[in-house]
Specification:
The chain is an alpha+beta fold and 294 residues long. The chain has nine helices and ten strands. The chain has a single domain, classed as Beta Polymerase, domain 2, CATH 3.30.460.
Amino acid sequence: MLDETTFNAQELKARFNRGGETAAHSGIFNAEELKARFNPEGSALRRQQLKMLEMVRVLDGICRKHDIPYFLYGGTLLGAIRHDGFIPWDDDLDVGLLRKDYLRLMKILPDELPEGMALQTNETDANYFYFFAKLRDKHSLLEEEAPYDRVFKERGVFIDIFPFEKMRLWTHLVAEPLQGHTFKIFRTAVDVEKAMKKIRALTWLNRHVTFPVLRAISRLTCGRVLTYDYGIPFHIVYDINDIFPLTTHVFEGVQLSVPGNSHHMLETQFGDYMKLPDLNHLQNHVQRLQFFDE
């Protein structure tokens, strides 16, 4: 029986982090039982996780080489702190950067990526209408439950790279429906090609006109908060002092960059993050996964 009791994170740290021991090794939950149930070696999910791990290690090396600060966040950060790696049932991997560092990384990655990986942005793929980047594996095919990826150029296993920026929150709330309308256009389309023409035009307008105006307004005002960049439909507000200075934490046996105060970051997003969810009601993103070496 899996133990789903709520634990105090500070007490866990005091009890179990001595000498490098972390929650996943402490007996709070049975890590081997979770692995056997959700991501045993050789399973499709575990193969996807290992591919994402390979990709984030490449990203980590490039960021270290060019002194670009990045950090694990969201469910990936939760996995690092609670499981020392992927949440056993997790099928994505998220990293974040401040927007200024994100823009630097976008210029560097195309020349630094090894063969078999590709950067996916609106600049590299005209049909990609998201306002964050993906690092894609070129030797696999992944289809998500949501149908938007069907029109993308690159469709392999990916990791998400999110930019974060200080802004007035109301400007972010204004931006969301402007780009959110593109998803409605796609969902209701009878002719996908005609719909994509509208989506490409609206994405261009937001990228080059609307969002720069909102960004300029934020820069001219005070009281800004740190959240996702314009066009990304999440409104979680973070404290930049929880992120920096960065530190590292073990993730699948590799030391990767994490926020300095991961506890408060996770508490802000998930509340009591050490408590396991209802394991009988989990949602996955992936509908279909194929590796071309099969």
